[in-house]
Task: inverse folding
């Protein structure tokens, strides 16, 4: 995990990211390092930056390397949104060229957690039904109990996943499950849910297809945040995605945020990514955990008030007491529902409006300082809390403006810069060569994307 911040106003975008990365699997001990790079420049010809969080690789290749390769090939973009979808198309092309083993591992990463959950839930439900028996109950029909438990569980997953919205994929048209993917899903179900009969396994295979087709991402997803200025944009734009590997030859992703600073729209915004609870608490006085705790407290306490009142009131008729209690219970439900739907949302809206009005006119240096401070706040909270330090290390900070372009405010190096002057000379020389080569290319009307092609003009399909 990580902590990342984007702050936008009309003049600039400040991006800040920590350096912690956690490495581990379900069966191996986890390890944390604090030297990972998560903030990069996306394009050489437009002031656009990119941050990544959670998974730092794609199709078994480091995203850092893919971003740098894309940067060397990309051209000019009129809008940040076009650059963002063009980068997704670049990842899709790279992923579609991956070995079949890599594509299959991507599908396993999405499907296996669901199958493990089904198997674990089945065991819990079955054991509960067996151990709930009393000595007077007849012996259970084990085969029938196994079948009914699995049937009920499969029906729940069919209902839940069937109601989810469709996922988004790079490319045209809906996702089509190929015969090879169907065979892989069949093998996974057969190996993972062995207790199911043939009909149940077929239904579970259908569930795994829903998992691939629907808006369901695995724990290994990668967050991508792209922000800056296109050639035709006076004010900054931010767009963020969550990607979850390849399904066949299609990149699966989900849109998260699209913030377009404008005179008629939002004039400023602070957006936290990944571990955001401390930032939400600092900015709005509330985070998701606080809202859950307040709601749970009210659910426990409000009925106690009703019970205490009824204990001191004498009713002439039992029916009157029941009718009044029914009305009070309904009022309690309205209160709890309004707490989540209205009260918390109003608190956040008012706090956000106050913060946005302050950030709208904040100078560029202060934007960078605030972004760094908010990441540092989460880092300090993690350091003094129990568990692993999943946020920490040096904080990279970049400021992007239309006038100065992409500017590093703070940037770590894993080597001493003063001992490696030739490295910076090479970088400067390569940048000069790329500027010259792109300037020599003929340009025709619209954007010129990587390798001289037009960028993707269509967003999600």
Result:
């Amino acid at each position: 995990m990580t902590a990342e911040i984007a702050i936008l106003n009309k003049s600039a975008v400040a991006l800040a990211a920590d350096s912690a990365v956690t490495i581990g699997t379900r069966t191996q001990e986890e390890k944390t390092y604090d030297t990972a790079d998560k903030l990069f420049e996306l394009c050489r010809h437009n002031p656009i930056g990119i941050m990544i969080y959670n998974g730092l690789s794609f199709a078994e290749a480091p995203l850092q390397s893919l971003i740098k390769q894309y940067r060397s090939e990309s051209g000019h973009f009129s809008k940040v949104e076009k650059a963002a979808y063009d980068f997704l198309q670049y990842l899709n092309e790279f992923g579609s060229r991956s070995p079949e083993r890599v594509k299959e591992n991507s599908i396993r990463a999405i499907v296996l957690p669901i199958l493990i959950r089904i198997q674990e839930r089945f065991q819990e439900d079955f054991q509960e039904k067996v151990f709930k028996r009393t000595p007077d109950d007849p012996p259970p029909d084990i085969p029938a109990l196994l079948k009914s438990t699995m049937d009920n569980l499969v029906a729940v997953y069919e209902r839940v996943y069937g109601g989810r919205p469709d996922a988004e994929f790079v490319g045209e048209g809906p996702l089509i499950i190929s015969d090879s993917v169907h065979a892989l899903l069949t093998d996974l179900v057969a190996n993972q849910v062995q207790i199911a009969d043939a009909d149940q396994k077929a239904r579970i295979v259908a569930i795994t297809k829903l998992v691939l087709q629907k808006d369901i991402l695995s724990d290994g997803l990668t967050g991508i945040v792209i922000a800056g200025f296109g050639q035709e944009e006076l004010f900054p734009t931010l767009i963020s995605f969550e990607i979850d590997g390849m399904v066949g030859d299609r990149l699966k992703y989900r849109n998260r945020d699209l913030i377009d600073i404008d005179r008629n729209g939002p004039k400023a915004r602070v957006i936290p990514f990944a571990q955001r609870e401390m930032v939400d608490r600092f900015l709005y006085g509330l985070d998701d955990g606080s809202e859950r705790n307040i709601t749970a407290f009210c659910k426990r306490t409000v009925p106690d008030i009703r019970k205490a009142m009824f204990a001191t009131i004498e009713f002439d008729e039992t029916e009157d007491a029941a009718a009044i209690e029914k009305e009070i219970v309904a009022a309690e439900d309205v209160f709890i529902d309004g707490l989540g739907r209205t009260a918390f949302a109003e608190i956040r809206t008012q706090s956000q409006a106050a913060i946005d009005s302050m950030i709208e006119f904040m100078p560029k240096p202060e934007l960078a300082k605030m972004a760094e401070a908010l990441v540092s706040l989460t880092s300090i909270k993690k350091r003094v809390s129990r568990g692993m330090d999943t946020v920490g290390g040096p904080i990279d900070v970049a400021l992007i403006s239309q006038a100065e372009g992409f500017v590093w405010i703070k940037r770590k190096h894993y080597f001493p810069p003063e001992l490696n002057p030739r490295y910076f000379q090479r970088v400067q020389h390569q940048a000069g060569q790329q500027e010259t080569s792109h300037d020599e290319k003929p340009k025709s009307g619209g954007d010129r994307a990587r390798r001289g092609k037009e960028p993707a003009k269509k967003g999600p399909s």
Remarks:
- The longest strand covers residues 237-247.
- The two ends are 29 Å apart (CA to CA).
